[in-house]
Here is the input.
Amino acid sequence: MNNLWLLAILALGLPLLLVPWALQADLGGPAQTVPTISFPASTYQVKAGDTLSAIAARFGVPVAWIMVSNSLSSTTIYPGQHLVIPKGGVLHTVKPGETWHTIAQAYGVNVETLREANGRWAEPRAGTQLFVPAPEIVPLSSPSAPFQWPVRGPISSGFGPRIHPIYNVPSFHAGIDLAVPEGTRVRAAAAGRITVAGWEGGFGLLVVIDHENGYETYYAHLSKVLVSPGQHVQAGEVIALSGNTGLSTGPHLHFEVRYLGTPVDPRPLLP
Here is the structure.
């Protein structure tokens, strides 16, 4: 009988003991509740013989998206490694000092679009993972590259968001414009193989060099091309003459650097 009374008392008192304990997480500091966001992504375990480019092609996403989403500083992967494969964008881990504005600017997306994709949170905390939908660019921690200036002239339009000079609408400038007279000799910024040498839509006459280290350089709005696809060139070799072809408002060279297919700011990579 005594045992039955003891069990009854415990049964009645246990909920009262547990409630204060369950509430302890809400005491002594700001609320830690964060909206639950389901990021559109899957995971993949690397197999022997896999390469990052092959995995990216298999899932139909850019290599750069996988690199940023997994905080990879190079394309080196190893069997057994688990990779996050994002869909429709990238996963960004917030660094100390970053804000909605700086993150949106780094990826070339609208601030409100970024906030809405993540549930309209307050300023994100360092270490938080955010989803960046359809980024215009992907800021990669790329190795230094010994590029040299393709021409010498003032920068008339920098890398990043701007108002399109022809369509007069907000756009993203994926390179830098160097104001030089038509006919200025354009030199290869580094050694590599010519992959494009001809007319390419809004670029006008265009030369593209694959530097075979993840980098490509673009030289656009040319008046004359002096190289052919498949040709290997050395750093400083004259490859074209500057011009005003394609979508252009005046003589200049549009110079663009891409790393793993993603445009990056050329200025930190130049002397």
In short: The radius of gyration is 26 Å. Confidence is low (pLDDT under 50) at residues 1-37.
